[in-house]
Specification:
mainly beta, six-stranded antiparallel β-sheet, four-stranded antiparallel β-sheet
Length: about 190
C-alpha cells in the first residue's frame, strides 16, 4: 500500500506543469531607404510614450463643466534619439507618432487599427518626424496589430523630408511587444495632445 501511494504521489508530482513562463521579448527593426539601421547601435536612446484622455480634458462626466459630447483621444510615440539624455525637440531624433481622435474607452493607450497620412479617416493618423525647420511627412501608413496589457506590436512606413540630409527618404519600422511608457520626461508630445 505504501508503494502504491508513493507511486501515485510520484505520478502526480511529475505531471505538474514545470515549465517556466517565457519572458516577453520586445524587438524593434528599422530600415531607411531600404538599408537596415541597427537601432541599438545607431541611437543612444529609444523610448515610447502613450496617453489616453478625454478631449477636451475638462469635458469629463461629473466635472464642473461637463460637455454634451466628448471623445477619447490616444497617442503612441516611438522616439529614436541620437544623443543620450532627456528627449527634447532640439536634439536630432526620429519619431513615429500614431494618434487617434476617437479611441475606444478600453484602458489601452492606443487602439488596434490602420493609421494613415494624409489622414483620410479623420480619426486615426500617423506621422514620421525628424525634428528640423522643414521636416514633414508626405505619405505614411501604419498598423497597430496588437495593443494589450501595456504592450504594442505593429508596423509603420512612410516618406518624409529629412532636413539633416536635405532629401526625401522612406522609413520602415517594425516593432513587437514594445512596452508603452507614460513618463512625460521621455517625450515632448505630451504638451501637444
Amino acid at each position: 500500500m505504501k508503494k502504491l501511494l508513493l507511486l501515485v504521489g510520484l505520478l502526480f508530482w511529475s505531471c505538474e506543469d514545470q515549465r517556466e513562463e517565457d519572458p516577453i521579448v520586445s524587438n524593434i527593426d528599422m530600415w531607411l531607404d531600404g538599408g537596415e539601421i541597427p537601432v541599438e547601435d545607431y541611437y543612444e536612446k529609444v523610448t515610447t510614450y502613450g496617453k489616453a484622455f478625454l478631449s477636451p480634458e475638462e469635458c469629463q462626466i461629473g466635472s464642473h463643466n461637463p460637455c454634451d459630447e466628448y471623445h477619447m483621444m490616444k497617442i503612441f510615440v516611438i522616439h529614436f534619439q541620437k544623443e543620450d539624455g532627456r528627449v527634447t525637440p532640439e536634439k536630432e531624433h526620429y519619431a513615429v507618432v500614431f494618434y487617434d481622435y476617437n479611441g475606444l474607452e478600453d484602458g489601452n493607450l492606443i487602439d488596434e487599427g490602420v493609421y494613415v497620412w494624409p489622414d483620410t479617416n479623420v480619426n486615426q493618423g500617423i506621422n514620421l518626424e525628424i525634428v528640423g525647420l522643414s521636416d514633414y511627412t508626405t505619405a505614411a501608413q501604419g498598423v497597430i496589430r496588437e495593443s494589450a496589457d501595456g504592450r504594442v506590436s505593429g508596423i509603420a512606413e512612410g516618406n518624409f523630408y529629412n532636413p539633416y540630409r536635405e532629401k526625401f527618404q522612406n522609413g520602415l519600422v517594425v516593432f513587437e511587444n514594445l512596452e508603452v511608457g507614460t513618463d512625460t520626461s521621455n517625450t515632448f508630445y505630451s504638451e501637444f495632445y
